[in-house]
Structure formats: structure tokens, C-alpha cells
Amino acid sequence: MPNNNLERAQTLVEALPYIQKFEGKIVVIKYGGNAMISPELFGAVIEDIILLQLVGIRPVLVHGGGPEINEMLDRLGIESRFVNGLRYTDAETMDVVQGILCGKVNKDLVSTIVRKGGSAIGLCGLDGKLFEATRMDKGDGEDYGFVGDIVNVNPEVVLQSIDDGHIPVVATVAYGIDGASAYNVNADTAAAQLAAALGAEKLILLTNTRGVLQEYGNEDSLIKVIRANEIDDLRKKNIVAGGMIPKVECCADAIAAGVARTHILDGRIPHSILIEMLTDEGAGTMIY
Question: Which tens digit of pLDDT belongs to each residue from 145-166?
């Protein structure tokens, strides 16, 4: 038992300078993937976020909800269709997306935070026109339906929630400024743009891999630190490839907009947020 107590004390001592460094700073965390499916991981993420707030850091939680959306579409007999990796969103699907993200998933997260002793408020991109978007047009002739590109972020409602002592929990549905009532937007992109608009210290993307890997499939080849000016070279070498490309691009965009540090973390590791933020070792890839 004494050894365990000593280890706990050493952990707290190691965390102290990080807590002091980040006190009062905003950290935007994009939550999704396996961390939303596993009850154990779900609980660990919520505990991490509450602890960050308790030590004076100001977390903002941005979430998707793909598995829940798929489940509801299946239940309603609506086919899920993807175009170039994006969910085709017709009017019927958009109703489901909005209902699941802004309703069920968002409020479940808020209630869990409150039940575990935190204070949270649920928001979506429609509130205060937090995310303003237009219909996506990639110039490829494809119709993506009600999928939007965020063209403006109005962070006042989030900042007010933080100042009031709440953890903002943000669903990624955007206000359409070109006639549509709402758009489905990419959660990673929304988190990156929100982090920039808030002047956040950090952007954290939880995903289903260790981070950026030197060798595809070899999780022991984790690249722990990447400078933004190294990204192009890593893409040419096919190290940043596939589904990792948009995540790294989101990090690069956030850095270009003034976010000091960005992180791609393995959401399958319990308490990966705390390990990355408050320990010397870290838990994923930091891009800065």
C-alpha cells in the first residue's frame, strides 16, 4: 500500500506544472469513435473532462454521433449512403441527424457530466448561430445533400457558458445561411474551427488509433511529435494517409489559426486525455 500511495503522490507532483501551465486556458476536445461506444471509455472521458475543469482548465466538448445515427436510420428503414466518404444527407436523414446529435447524444453527455459531479450545458451549431454554413460544393459534380461547409463561427454562446462555470457540450449541426434550416457538418472540422475562434490553447481529437504511425498498422511506431512544416513531407511519404489525412489537416488549420498545440489521441486508452495533458509521457501524436 505505501508504494501505491507513493506512486499516486508522484503522479500528482508530475501533473502539477501542467495544471499550473494550463490553468484558465481553453481546451477543445472532439469526442467520437470507440470512446463513445464502450461504457468504460465513455466514463473515463467524462471523468477526464470534469477533472480538467476542477483544476482550473476550461474544457469544451465537441461531439459527433455516427453510430447512434446509423442505428436510428436502420430502425426507421432509411438507407445510409456515403459519397466520397461523406454521409449523403437528404431532408429525412437530416431530421434524424439533428434529432440524434442535438437531442439524444448531446443531452446524454450533459446528464452524464452532471451525474458525475460536473456542470455542463448542451449546445449545437444552431444556438446563437454558433456554426454558420453553406451547402458543400467540392466542385466534383457530386450532390452531398444537407452537408455543409462552416463559413463562420460565432463563439459568444460558448464563451458565456464557460464564464458561467459550465462545460459546453457542442453538437455539430450548423445553421444554414443560404436557405437551408440546418446542415450536417464534420465534427473534426467543427472542433478545429471552434478551437481557433475561442483562442484555445489545445485541440484534442480522439480517434481509434494510437495517433500518426510511422508504419501503417504498427502501433509501436507512433510518431509522438510532428511540426506543422513536416506534414507535407509525411503525406508525400504516405505516412499521413487515408482517414488520418483530414484529422491532420484539421490540426494544421487550427495551428495556422493560432491554436498552440493539437493532439490526435487514442480514444481506446482509458484517461488518454489526462495522460496526454498532465504527464511527461503523453498518449498520442502532438502536432504544433
Answer: 999 999 999 999 999 999 999 9
Rounded-to-5 percentages of helix, strand, coil across the chain: 45, 25, 30
53 phi and psi angles, rounded to 5 deg: -65, -40
Q: Which of 43, 36, 19, 151 is nearest to 101 (CA)?
A: 36
Its pTM surpasses 0.90 = yes
- Using alpha carbons, list the distances in angstroms from residue 154 to 100, 107, 136, 146, 282: 23, 22, 20, 21, 32
C-alpha distances in angstroms, 126 versus 91, 155, 179, 189?
Answer: 17, 12, 14, 16
pLDDT in tens, 86-124: 889 999 999 999 999 999 999 999 999 999 999 999 999
What is the DSSP secondary-structure string of 69-108? HHHHHHHHTPPP-EETTEE-B-HHHHHHHHIIIIIIIHHH
Average pLDDT over residues 48-77: 93
Distance CA 87, CA 125 (A): 18
C-alpha cell at 10: 508522484
Q: Given phi > 0 = left and psi -120 to 50 = alpha, else beta, which region is 28?
A: beta
Q: Do the Cβ atoms of 171 and 103 come closer than 8 Å? A: no
Cell numbers describing residue 11: 503522479
- In the chain, the DSSP E strands lie at 26-31, 58-63, 82-83, 86-87, 120-125, 131-135, 148-153, 167-176, 182-184, 202-207, 225-226, 261-266, 284-287
Which residues 6+ apart lie within 8 Å of 153 measured at CB? 130, 131, 132, 193, 194, 196, 197
